[in-house]
Amino acid sequence: MVAVGSLGKLWLDLPEDIDSMEALQSAFSKHFNADWKDVMVGADQPFGYHAAYDAYFTVRDLRAVTGMTIDQLLEDKGVKKPLNIVAG
Q1: Does pLDDT of 27 surpass 80?
Q2: pTM of the full predicted structure?
Q3: Helix, strand or coil for residue 83?
Q4: How far is the C-alpha of 13 from the C-alpha of 22, rounded, in Å?
Q5: Helix ranges (DSSP H) in the chain
Q6: Which secondary structure element, helix H or strand E, spans residue 4, and what is its range?
């Protein structure tokens, strides 16, 4: 199965002084206008799990596509180069 969607909002300029889960959650909530626990994959993981991330992003209109590989999906959409973002 492949999931597809549209890129929503990016957060690339994370503050340097984030040193706790509470600070990260607060800054995240201010940037995305969303509660961390409501939208973050792995929200229950400890601060050390999230501390090394360089960016966060949102995805809109996420939906599953079955019966197609990523290569077939890219070919179907006319994409000629590989994707630069892999999220898991």
Answers
A1: yes
A2: 0.72
A3: coil
A4: 18
A5: 21-32, 36-39, 47-50, 70-76
A6: strand 2-11
